[in-house]
Structures are given as C-alpha cells and as structure tokens.
Design brief:
By secondary structure, the chain is α+β, with helices and mostly antiparallel strands. The chain has 3 helices and 6 strands, in the order βααβββββα. The chain is elongated, with a radius of gyration of 16 Å.
C-alpha cells in the first residue's frame, strides 16, 4: 500500500469504554480527523469547500477492528488513496506505536455533492491525485 499521509495520535481516557478499550465509534472520529488533516496538508479547507457548495461526504464504510487501542496508547494513522469513478476511496490504517500492531483498517468511500448534486470536484481531484486530470469541472 502506498501511503500518502500519516499522523500520530494518542488515545484519551474518555474515549475508552468499560472494558478499557477504545469505543468503536471513536475510530470513526480518528479516521475523519486524519482525513481533515490530510486535506489541510493538501491546501484545502473542509469548511471553505462547503462555503463554495462542495461537500465531500461518506457514502460507504467498511471497518475492521484488528487489535484494541487503550488509554494513552499512541498510534500512527495512515492514508492511501484511489479513485473509482466519482468516488474517492480512502484506505485508512491505524498502527499502535508500542508494537506496530495493526489496530484498525478501514475503506471509506467519499463522494462529492456540488450544490447538492453528485459530481466530481476538480479541487479535490487535483489536490489528491495531482497526476490525474479531472473529468469535468463542476465547480
């Protein structure tokens, strides 16, 4: 897998459940936060894109929980990308720093709504896949 972005995060105590492991819903927060950091690194603002009428929304998610994260664990969140038609597919992986164990694996498919209609955002495609040309410019 060719990763295009990674960042380090740490589990906070309130993210854990009674079993002492990260509650499954928090993995979605970690994944989304990683995508937003990636977006910023590529020079785009999620809020600014929304103001322009372009909203990247999750259309489908396949999540696999491999090894539990616990309070104070540090982990590396990594992203690999691919494009399937109008979908932008984020392959996201979380690796625990202490032992490099794979803790989470997700396939998150995003689509863009441009002024409420399914379309392809030239800005997103150009930022995420600089080697490819947009099919259309719906912005």
């Amino acid at each position: 897998m060719d990763f295009v972005f990674e960042c380090k995060m740490q589990v906070r105590d309130y993210e854990c459940d009674i079993e002492g492991i990260v509650n499954n819903a928090n993995y979605l927060h970690y994944a989304e936060h990683t995508r937003h950091l990636f977006l910023k690194e590529r020079g785009l603002s999620f809020a600014e894109m929304h103001r322009k009428g372009v909203d990247a929304v999750a259309a489908r998610m396949n999540l696999q929980f491999k090894a539990p994260l616990r309070c104070d664990d540090e982990f590396i969140s990594k992203i690999a990308l691919e494009k399937e038609g109008v979908k932008i597919v984020f392959h996201q992986y979380f690796y625990r720093c202490s032992d490099n164990a794979l803790c989470f694996k997700g396939r998150i498919e995003l689509v863009c709504l441009i002024n409420g209609k399914l379309g392809e955002s030239k800005e997103y495609v150009d930022a995420f896949f600089p080697q490819k040309q947009s099919i259309s410019s719906n912005e």
